[in-house]
Amino acid sequence: MSARSGSASRRLSDDARFVLDTRSLGRRPGSLREERRSFATPERIGLDLIAIPEGADIELDLQLQAVSEGVLVTGTVSAPVAGECGRCLEPFTDNLRLQLTELFAYPDSLTERTTEEDEVRRLVDDHADLEPVVVDAVGLALPLQPACSPDCPGLCSECGVRLAIAGADHRHEILDPRWAGLAKFGESDSGDLEKTEEEK
């Protein structure tokens, strides 16, 4: 699913489950209507390392309010997310809950006439398309570098093992590169001594 685009703002999503019919709300400012929906998302929504998986149950708990310039949609979106930890590379799951606040302008409103097409959402035949709103909100809410837990120690930089399971005594002898040459001399001297002992 793509994020907001000007060309997409005047057409409705192919999936009607994201589309809200506002005709019963009317245009009298202050009119309210609640809308609750739960359905399996038709596509993956999110970022490269973490997203709402395709087929996951997404819940919309919304309030539609008629205002002078359009329909204000507020509420929450809840869904499970699955990702890959950016520190230890292990898969993990979590739950996402985020707030939505979006104005859908009436076609003949001042807002519609004085704003660029990609600056505000528009009602299309009295329908509000939430798909691009949800896609944008999820993309902004999810981290670019997700972690399976806030204290995930990641991978060992020397051997690549997960530090969370490696144990507290996991360590490597790291030789200062400035002494690497002397270490080679030491190994060579040691070999010469062994040969001398054998010759005796």
Description of the molecule:
Helix content is 20%, strand content 32%. The chain is of the alpha+beta class. It folds into two domains: 16-141, no CATH class; 163-199, no CATH class. The strands form two sheets. Strands 2, 3, 4, 5, 6, 7 and 8 form a seven-stranded mixed beta sheet that branches. A two-stranded antiparallel ribbon has the order 1-9. The longest helix is centred in the last third of the chain and has 20 residues, at 180-199.
Summarize the structure.
The chain is α+β, with helices and mostly antiparallel strands. It folds into two domains: 16-141, no CATH class; 163-199, no CATH class. It contains four helices and nine strands, in the order βββββββαββααα.
Task: Give the SSE order as H and E letters.
Answer: EEEEEEEHEEHHH
Determine Rg (CA atoms, Å): 29 Å
- Structural domain count: 2
State the assembly state of the protein chains.
single chain
Number of helices: 4
Terminal-residue CA separation: 79 Å
